[in-house]
Amino acid sequence: MHLTEHAAQRSQQRGISQEQVDWLLAYGKIGHNKGVCLYFFDRVGFEQLIHEVAPVHQTLAQRSRDIFVVVADESVITLGYHDERLKPQKPHRRLRRGTPSNAAARRIHHRTH
Fold it and tell me: Using DSSP, how many helices (H) and how many strands (E) does the chain show?
């Protein structure tokens, strides 16, 4: 997959190799956030990578655990190390008017109505 200039610059700054990006695109999970595809390793995909990678590349593979890649229009836009801001969004679940938005309050509300 093609890396934009911005992604190539971020890759160099953050010490993320092209091989790590390729592993993530092959074994990573896809989430959607703010209109782009977000690739990241879940437990299953990461374990599969560790089992299938050559012994020579084990240390590099271990360092790949927290990497994310943002893809749009078949190009890698940016990449880096996973943090709380880039979690994939869950589908929006609409609440009825008058229903509390807090989960605990919603359970109490449903028991009484």
Answer: 5, 5
Assess contact for 104 and 70: CB atoms under 8 A.
no
pTM: 0.70
Provide the 8-state DSSP code for 74.
T
How far from 35 is each of 15, 31, 44, 45, 56, CA to CA, in Å?
Answer: 26, 10, 25, 23, 37
Amino acid type, 31: G
Query: Taking Cα atoms as reference points, which of 43, 48, 49, 39 lies closest to residue 82?
Result: 39
* Residue 70 binned pLDDT confidence (cut-offs 50, 70, 90): very high
DSSP conformation class of 60 = H
Q: Of residues 86 and 111, which shows the higher confidence score?
A: 111
Q: CA distances (Å), 96 to each of 33, 107, 112, in order? A: 25, 14, 16
User: What is the mean pLDDT of the segment spanning 43-64?
Assistant: 93
